[in-house]
Amino acid sequence: LSPSMRHEFLVNFLCRSAKRDGRMEIMGGLQRRPQIHVRDVADFFIKMLMIEPEFLAGEVFNAVGENPSVIEIARSIKECLPGTKVVMVPERPDELSYEMDGDKIWKRMKLKAEWSIRDGVEEILRARV
Q1: What is the structure's pLDDT at 81?
Q2: pLDDT tens-digit profile of 20-68?
Q3: d(C-alpha 27, C-alpha 59), whole Å
Q4: Could you say which DSSP state residue 69 is in?
Q5: How far apart are alpha carbons 47 and 63 in whole angstroms?
Q6: What would the DSSP string read from start to end of 88-106?
Q7: Beta carbons within 8 Å of 6's beta carbon, 6+ residues apart
Q8: Is the dihedral of CA 11, 16, 18, 19 positive or negative?
Q9: Which distant-in-sequence residues (6+ apart) come within 8 Å of 17 by Cβ?
């Protein structure tokens, strides 16, 4: 959490809408969005700083926690705020889905995200959003 949390990011935006308005508007919903908690990213950076630079030279790693669909994220939020309405609206014609493979960072570095989307949602909802 941050005092200047960015509410245009999907999980943050949907949590704020659910808590403030009691509803989440979902466009389409099947599109996938890779997610990772900022604490996992920070942990990955710290651990990678402890590894011999030659082992990492020229390598690219995707740090990914989960690849949920937008509707799956909304369901996680609704589970934490049961009275929340999920309003489905047509998706935009240019709506894309994104998935990332984080297997390389796990296989080579043994780094795996510890914080789930549910953990992040609960953290956000406990705070004032």
Answers
A1: 94
A2: 999 999 999 999 999 999 999 999 999 989 988 888 889 999 999 999 9
A3: 36
A4: B
A5: 12
A6: EEPPPTT--------HHHH
A7: 12
A8: positive
A9: 23, 24, 25
**Which residue type does 15 have?**
C
Please give the full DSSP string across 3-42, using - where no structure is assigned.
TT--TTSHHHHHHHHHHHHSEEEEESS--B--B--HHHHH
Residue 95 tokens read as 């709506």
Neighbours of 120 (CB within 10 A): 23
Six token digits for residue 102: 């984080």
Sign of the alpha-carbon torsion through 28, 16, 67, 83: negative
Distance from CA of residue 9 to its chain's centroid? 8
Q: Enter the pTM of the model.
A: 0.86
Q: Which two tokens stand for residue 21?
A: 């308005």
Is there a contact between 14 and 72 (Cβ–Cβ < 8 Å)? no
CA–CA dist 52, 69 (Å, integer): 36
Report the phi/psi class of residue 110: left, alpha or beta, with left for phi > 0 and alpha for psi in -120 to 50: left
